[in-house]
Specification:
InterPro entries: aa-tRNA-synth_I_cd-bd, aa-tRNA-synth_I_codon-bd_sub2, aa-tRNA-synth_I_CS, aa_tRNA-synth_I_cd-bd_sf, Glu-tRNA-ligase_bac/mito, Glu/Gln-tRNA-synth, Glu/Gln-tRNA-synth_Ib_cat-dom, GluQ/Sye. Residues 338-464 form the Aminoacyl-tRNA synthetase class I anticodon-binding domain. It catalyses: tRNA(Glu) + L-glutamate + ATP = L-glutamyl-tRNA(Glu) + AMP + diphosphate. Catalyzes the attachment of glutamate to tRNA(Glu) in a two-step reaction: glutamate is first activated by ATP to form Glu-AMP and then transferred to the acceptor end of tRNA(Glu). By secondary structure, the protein is mainly alpha-helical. It has 4 domains: 6-72 and 232-299, 3-Layer(aba) Sandwich (Rossmann fold); 79-229, HUPs (Rossmann fold); 316-370; 379-466, Arc Repressor Mutant, subunit A (Orthogonal Bundle), CATH 1.10.10. It is 47% helix and 10% strand. It contains 19 helices and 12 strands. The strands form 5 sheets. Strands 1-2-3 form a 3-stranded parallel sheet. Strand 1 (6-9), helix 1 and strand 2 form a beta-alpha-beta unit. Helix 3 packs across helix 5, helix 16 packs across helix 18 (425-437) and helix 16 (387-401) packs across helix 19. The protein is elongated and about 110 Å long.
Length: 471
């Protein structure tokens, strides 16, 4: 196939953006973006009872969070109903489809009889070759004339060649008796009209391909390249479902996973590039191809996701990381950071990034920079603030007052104090952590003092030392 690559993502707006759907969108996005092609978005909203504006919004927000930008306007499948019907009527006019007046009772009776005789229950309409003069004045559907002989071969880029006997295909309905088009017709017409060259979707649609190919062939349209990707399973090997935990893309945002890490991990679910686990968007676009998608279902592993996300947090630029943290707090309905907190968090990122796997993890380590006096000391840290430790802080604080406020200057003062008092730095580190952060596990005490600055650091140390006098 020559010309520009055009892929599409076509979710139904009946709920949030499922993580499996997000991966399908990602695969389409990567394939198009890596080849200078177009990535289109179509909302398949023909099911008017189940489709909701809220679900459409949730899908768009999920894609926006994942950074999966699409080309052109969002296409509504429902709005193309007139065009879909035109194609069915054209096939009717050309004798490639026919009016079927069979009632639901007649179809049910046919299937009961076929089942009893052990035959195929695909309905064989008596109206397929009926003369128009015999047509009654009654409601009818329009059915396509499926091929009765030979085979249909789906040349799939992931599954390989899949052969289906044509006698297994039914005369699929194109237009219902009320004149509305069915989903199968709408998909084909939309894909053709949108110029889609590659249909990359879940392998639960594989059987649909043979039926949709009937419409392509009847219209004389070029077939797209098909790539049906395996579904995602949970760690237990069963199809991913609600029992496995979060399923919607936005839920993962609210749990504090960075978008770049999520893209990286989802790309590795069912696709590989050698042994590469961690890669950038630029590399993913360059490397992604259909040949390297596996045939077996991939297993969603939260620990691997966290590991990849931690690596992405570590290499993120501070400004972009800070903005994503702000977005995370909003998505998780957490209080927003004040301007002073934002400034201190930004200044602290250099000593936090390589230690966190998620944003809640990072913010816990950043607690010293976003908390304020008086410092609330957790129980584990409070054990480091006994009378002896507070005495150390009381003696050390005046010496820090005149220190050069640099890592070298701070290290020199604390080393000198330890040497003079014949104590190890570890004896001092616990009280310093408790005084500066109220936590037992923190970044380096020197990093904390550098981020907080002389005035705030000394104030916190003084507060902790003063408490000794009130006991």
């Amino acid at each position: 196939m020559t010309g520009q690559v055009v892929t599409r993502f076509a979710p139904s707006p009946t709920g949030y953006l499922h993580i499996g759907g997000a991966r399908t969108a990602l695969f389409n996005w990567l394939y198009a973006r890596g080849r200078g092609g177009k990535f289109l978005l179509r909302i398949e909203d023909t099911d008017r009872e189940r489709s909701t504006p809220e679900a459409t919004t949730a899908i768009l927000q999920g894609m926006n969070w994942l950074g999966l930008d699409h080309d052109g306007e969002v296409v509504s499948q429902f709005e193309g109903a007139k065009r879909h019907a035109e194609v069915a009527l054209q096939l009717l006019e050309e004798g490639k489809a026919y009016k079927c007046f069979a009632t639901q009772d007649e179809i049910a009776a046919f299937r009961d009889e076929a089942r009893a005789e052990g035959k195929s229950t695909h309905f064989r309409s008596p109206w397929r070759d009926a003369d128009a003069s015999t047509h009654p004045d009654a409601p009818f559907v329009i059915r396509i004339k499926a091929p009765r002989d030979g085979e249909t071969v789906i040349r799939d880029q992931v599954q390989g060649d899949v052969t289906i006997r044509n006698d297994q295909l039914d005369d699929m309905i194109l237009l219902r008796s009320d004149g509305t088009p069915v989903y199968m017709l709408a998909v084909v017409v939309d894909d053709h009209d949108m110029g889609v060259t590659h249909v990359i979707r879940g392998d639960d649609h594989l059987n649909n391909a043979a039926r949709q190919m009937m419409i392509y062939n009847a219209m004389g349209w070029d077939l797209p390249v098909y790539a049906h990707i395996p579904l995602i399973h949970g760690a237990d090997g069963k199809k991913l479902s609600k029992r496995h935990g979060a399923l919607g893309a936005q839920e993962y945002q609210a749990m504090g996973y960075p978008a770049a890490g999520m893209r990286n991990y989802l790309a590795r679910l069912g696709w590989s590039h050698g042994d590469d686990e961690f890669f950038t968007d630029v590399q993913a676009k360059e490397w992604f191809d259909l040949d390297s998608i596996g045939k077996s279902p991939a297993r969603f592993d939260t620990k691997k996701l966290e590991n990849i996300c931690g690596q992405h947090i570590a290499v993120s630029e501070d400004a972009a990381l800070l903005q994503e943290i702000v977005n995370y707090l909003d998505a998780a309905d957490q209080p927003a950071l004040s301007e002073p907190q934002t400034v201190l968090l930004r200044d602290a990122l250099y000593c936090l990034k390589d230690r966190a796997k998620t944003f809640p993890d990072l913010l816990e380590k950043a607690h010293f920079s976003i908390t304020s006096r008086p410092i609330d000391v957790e129980e584990k840290a409070a054990k480091h603030l006994d009378s002896v430790s507070r005495g150390i802080l009381n003696d050390l604080t005046p010496q820090l007052q005149n220190a050069s406020w640099s890592r070298e200057g701070l290290e020199a003062v604390t080393s000198s104090y330890c040497e003079a008092n014949e104590i190890k730095f570890g004896k001092m580190a616990g009280p310093l952590r408790a005084a500066l952060a109220g936590r037992a596990a923190t970044p380096s005490v020197f990093d904390m003092m550098l981020v907080l600055g002389r005035e705030e650091s000394l104030a916190r140390l003084t507060d902790a030392a003063k408490d000794n006098a009130t006991e």
